[in-house]
Design goal:
Elements (H helix, E strand, L loop, with lengths): L4 E10 L2 E8 L9 H11 L1 H8 L8 E7 L8 E6 L9 H13 L9 E8 L2 E10 L2 E8 L4 E11 L3 E9 L3 E6 L12 H18 L13 E7 L8 E8 L3 E2 L5 H13 L8 E5 L5 E12 L2 E10 L1 E11 L12 H4 L9
Parallel strand pairs: 2-3, 4-5, 10-11, 12-14
Antiparallel strand pairs: 1-2, 1-17, 3-4, 5-6, 6-7, 7-16, 8-9, 9-10, 11-12, 12-13, 14-15, 15-16
Amino acid sequence: MQAKRAITLVGCHAEGEIGDVIVGGVLPPKGATMFEKMQTMAREHDHIRRMLICEPRGSVARHVNLIVPAVRADCDAGAIIMEPTEYPPMSGSNTMCVTTVLLETGMVAMQEPTTRLRLDMPGGPVDIIAACQNGKCVSVEIANVPSFVERLDAPLEIAGRGTIAVDIAYGGMFYALVAADKLGFAVTPDEARDLAALGEDIRRAVRAQYAVVHPENPAIQGVSIVQFDMPFQGAEQVSRNTCIVAPGRSDRSPTGTGTSARMAVLHARGQLKPGEGFYHESIIGSRFYGRIVGPAQIGARMGVATTIKGRAWVTGLFNYFLDPSDPYPTGYIVADTWGRTTSLTQD
């Protein structure tokens, strides 16, 4: 075997959503902040994402995280998140995977019964409380970046469906939230293909009709994900959702940043107060627990500080090699498995 590149990953998933973690073979990208490092990764080293997420080595269902040294002195480690069509500034499920891998591989010392650490993420630092038992990380609670509502009940024109109402909110990336039941869905696995197709139609429409920009970081802009929600059942109850990750598939987890975005909307509507939380359930029945901690200032806006709690599991150790004669060094995309398009970027 010949190899001009070797990359080692620890396999991991958080409540069903794959968030594998690179632990060897990739050097940290340059940048004075973690956000700048993420931008450098996207601009100069995107072949890593393509190699690991595209076929024949990966799939559209996979996310990959690169652990790097923290830039901030008050953080224990940093991470860059790579998804099928973007480098998001924050992700709850991926952060749970990164935390679990850091602790269970010993890169960050585990303390039982509770390990506290801080991660330097592109969207801002996040504090973590990890419950640990017998050498295992049994749950991860994330104090997420501040969340806020951009618009409520925004009219959206969808070809073939007319006008629907969407809420637009930020929970670590921008979301368009839609009432699933009003469109005839119950958010069940047998509906996944139809939800994915409609979700992509909505995402493209909202990106075309509404320009959204983070008030503190203008490089964070545009709706990334569409969240289909079943009716809210009240504080401490279970509410079902699915988030359509571009280019068109249901997140297997309840989606951490989506949970925060929904809490921002629920708070704005007076349905969830500081100190209250709820269980967000995914299309496969897995759950995160989200809670509003209190108010948060984001530039001139007021939003909410939230926490998200869930679990992640290590699934294996993977070594990937790139043979010099391999005709697909950065993989390939075929629309039958990739999604609605053959795009590797948000469009």
